[in-house]
Amino acid sequence: MKKKLLILSVALLLTVLMWSITYRTTNFNKENEDELAELLKRVGNYEKENKELRMQKGEEIIALVNGIPIYKNEVEYRKGLVEIAYGKRDDEFINSFAAIVRVKILSDFAEKNNIHVNDEEIFDYIKKEKANEDLVKYVKIFCENAGMTLEEYWNEYEYEKVKLLLTLKKLEDSIIEQGIQKGEIPQISDYHIKQKYVKDFQNNLIEKADIEIDQNYIEELKGFNNEKLFK
After folding, report:
1. Which of the 8 DSSP states describes residue 217?
2. Angle, to 10 degrees, between the axis of helix 119-130 and the axis of helix 158-181?
3. DSSP string, 3-43
4. Which of 19, 115, 163, 226 has the smallest set of CB atoms within 10 Å of its CB?
5. Is the pLDDT of residue 210 over 60?
6. Secondary element (H or E) of residue 68
7. How many whole angstroms from its chain centre is CA 136?
8. What domain count does the chain have?
9. Which domain holds residue 145?
10. Cβ distance 150 to 130 under 8 Å?
11. Rounded to an integer, what distance in angstroms lies between the CA atom of residue 155 and that of residue 153?
């Protein structure tokens, strides 16, 4: 169980704002641990060399999603992280763009429906992470290579990831609760029924989203379509 929790926690560690960049293994042994440590060194080095790309508010808008800007730098940053984890892949700029669009749509819906998390919830989650000695070991590897203090990691870098993670989880819970109240899913139903309901609800939101790509990026994003957003 401890190793399972470690894998899930490390998956979060390797997630850039929860945009589907994860490292998973079913057989967590010494060889996997060494491999993971090397991966975190590369991710740390990437963060150190590209911190400004992640931190900058963005100047070059490549699209608007329900009126919310998507900046080139956030897509480029995510693209670089994916390539570290999986190597260079075709259409990665488009795939990274699609992943960001999806999260923006869901976050926007949560915001408009007053679905929020507070600092107490965020730091309670982080406290549990800090109690996992194995996870902290990997966090230290990342921080050493990222030129980041542990305080910066927990209070800034991880804070934002956990905030989004918990917000999206609350959104899922809210969707399920509404489905039960409307009689669209049974009060007592298994995990798969609930997840299908959430999936269909979210995909419906995405289908209705207003996505406007800047004229200067229509060619670069010509392979993008709403189907890439569905899960």
Report:
1. G
2. 120
3. HHHHHHHHHHHT-STTSS-----SS--HHHHHHHHHHHHHH
4. 226
5. yes
6. strand 68-71
7. 20
8. 1
9. 2-229
10. no
11. 6
Helices marked H in the chain — which ranges? 2-13, 30-55, 72-86, 92-112, 119-130, 133-146, 150-152, 158-181, 191-208
Residue 165: name the closest of 122, 114, 111 by CA: 122
Query: Contact 174/113 with Cβ under 8 angstroms?
Result: yes
Closest CA relative to residue 123, chosen from 157, 163, 165:
163
CATH number for the domain spanning 36: value is 1.10.4030
Query: How high is the pLDDT of residue 106?
Result: 95
In 10 A of CB 220, how many CB atoms?
16
Summarised one tens digit per residue, pLDDT across range 17-64 is 333 333 343 444 556 778 888 888 998 999 999 888 787 666 799 999
Can you read off the two tokens belonging to residue 221?
């994003």
Which pair of tokens denotes residue 74? 């956030």
Token pair recorded at residue 196? 């299908």
CB proximity list for 45: less than 8 A, separation 6 or greater: 145, 146
Q: How many residues does the chain have?
A: 231
Torsion of CA 179, 182, 186, 188, to 10 degrees: 70
Backbone angles phi, psi at 212, to 5 degrees: -120, 110
